[in-house]
C-alpha cells in the first residue's frame, strides 16, 4: 500500500480497506461477513456500533432471510425480490439491529507491526482501543465485549482477541506519527489466538 494520510478521512479510508481485507480472508475460510456502515464518534448509535458480523456458510444458508431471494428455496433472482421490503428487513434501524442472530460481532483494528500470528507478535501487550473509546462504549467493563481481529498492515496476517478477554486500562501510549500521548485498553500477548482459531470458533457456534 502507498502511504496513508493521518487525517481522519485518511484513517477512515484505511480502516475500510483493512475491514475489506479481513472480510476477504474470512471468505476464503468459507465464512460470511456483513459490513456495517461507518458510525462516527458523537453519533447517537456510536456506542452500539461495530465493523463486521461474521457467520458460517451453514448459518447463512439455513437462517439468512436473503436465501430465498438468491435462489436458496426458489429458482431465479430479481432486484425486487432482494429489496429490504421483500426480505422483511426493517430500513430504519441501527446497523447493530441487523446483526444475524448467532453471528460474531467483530471490530477490526490494523497496526503497523510485523507479525504472522500470536507467537511472533512483537510486544507483550496488544492495544485494543483508546481508553476514551472504551469508556464511552463499555464503562465499567473489564473484559472485551466483542471479538477483535487485529491485522498487520505489513504482512496482512490476522490475530484474534476473543470476546471476554480481560483488559488492562490506563495503559500509556505515545503515537510518534501524530506526536501525542494517550491511554489505551490493552490485553497481554498470551491471550491472542490465531485466525484459524477464530474460524473454528465461528463454525462451532
3D architecture notes:
- The chain contains five helices and nine strands, in the order αββααββαβββββα.
- The protein has 205 residues and is α+β, with helices and mostly antiparallel strands.
- The protein has one domain (8-64, 100-204): Trna Endonuclease, Chain: A, domain 1 (3-Layer(aba) Sandwich), CATH 3.40.1350.10.
- The strands form two sheets. The protein has a six-stranded mixed β-sheet.
- Strand 5 (147-152) and strand 6 (158-161) form a beta hairpin.
- The longest helix is centred in the first third of the chain and has 20 residues, at 8-27.
- The radius of gyration is 18 Å and the shape is globular.
- It starts with 7 loop residues before the first helix and ends with a helix.
Summarize the entry for a quick read.
This protein has 205 residues and is of the alpha+beta class.
Tag the structure with descriptive keywords.
205 residues, Trna Endonuclease, Chain: A, domain 1, three-stranded antiparallel beta sheet, disordered N terminus
Amino acid at each position: 500500500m502507498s502511504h496513508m494520510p493521518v487525517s481522519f478521512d485518511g484513517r477512515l479510508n484505511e480502516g475500510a480497506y483493512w475491514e475489506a481485507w479481513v472480510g476477504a480472508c474470512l471468505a476464503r475460510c468459507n465464512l460470511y461477513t456483513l459490513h456495517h456502515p461507518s458510525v462516527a464518534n458523537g453519533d447517537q448509535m456510536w456506542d452500539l456500533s461495530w465493523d463486521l458480523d461474521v457467520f458460517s456458510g451453514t448459518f447463512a444458508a439455513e437462517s439468512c432471510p436473503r436465501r430465498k431471494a438468491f435462489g436458496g428455496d426458489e429458482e431465479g433472482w430479481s432486484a425486487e425480490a432482494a429489496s429490504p421490503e421483500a426480505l422483511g428487513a426493517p430500513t430504519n434501524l441501527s446497523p447493530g439491529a441487523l446483526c444475524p442472530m448467532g453471528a460474531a460481532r467483530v471490530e477490526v483494528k490494523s497496526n503497523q507491526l510485523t507479525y504472522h500470528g500470536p507467537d511472533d507478535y512483537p510486544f507483550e501487550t496488544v492495544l485494543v482501543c483508546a481508553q476514551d473509546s472504551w469508556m464511552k462504549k463499555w464503562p465499567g467493563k473489564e473484559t472485551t465485549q466483542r471479538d477483535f481481529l487485529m491485522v498487520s498492515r505489513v504482512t496482512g496476517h490476522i490475530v484474534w482477541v476473543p470476546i471476554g478477554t480481560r483488559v488492562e486500562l490506563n495503559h500509556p501510549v505515545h503515537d510518534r506519527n501524530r506526536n501525542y500521548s494517550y491511554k489505551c485498553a490493552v490485553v497481554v500477548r498470551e491471550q491472542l489466538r490465531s485466525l484459524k482459531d477464530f474460524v473454528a470458533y465461528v463454525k462451532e457456534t
